[in-house]
Amino acid sequence: MDLHLQPCTDSDLELLVRISKTTFIDAFEKDNDPNDFKSYLAFAFDRNRLLKELEDQDTTFYFVYCGSELVGYLKLNENQAQTDIKSDESMELERIYVLQAFQGRRIGKWMLDEAKKIATGKRMAFLWLGVWEKNPRAIKFYQRHGFTKFGTHPYYIGKDRQTDWLMRVDLRNFDSE
């Protein structure tokens, strides 16, 4: 499979908005109150908000392509752009999504490995993320790839207070080859 990352730029804004909404809807719409979910989508994937994030030097979005076809995206945060931990030794994997039509092809594993390589290349001690406590499939995926739970934080979908597990993987022994 010919997978590769492409950093997103301001000119990718419309495509980023589309893939962000599509993947989030596919993953979580069925498990949330429709009004709260609609409110969250309008907030989290607002064009101006995403443009501001694209322009933040500590945030990087990557599109994932299989050949010339867009199959997913990820978002990495460093320093003060991280949502919880603000350590210069860590990197946050805030978003990692594969379009529904491409799931089950080990693209998520490849993306996770790429995120680890990027963080290792920047000499980060660990990569961390938040995952919804009611998403056992994702939790097991991260655990299979070395992530362990180290805490929790609240995550709001509209007015609905949910809980995310905070998980991290130590990168000091990660082989990026």
UniProtKB/TrEMBL annotation:
Record keywords, A-Z: Acyltransferase, Transferase
UniProt domain N-acetyltransferase: residue ranges: 3-172
Gene3D superfamilies in the cross-refs: 3.40.630.30
Pfam family, one: Acetyltransf_1
Domain of life where this protein originates: Bacteria
Keyword Chaperone appears in the UniProt entry: no
Name of this chain's protein: GNAT family N-acetyltransferase
Native source organism of the sequence: Pricia mediterranea
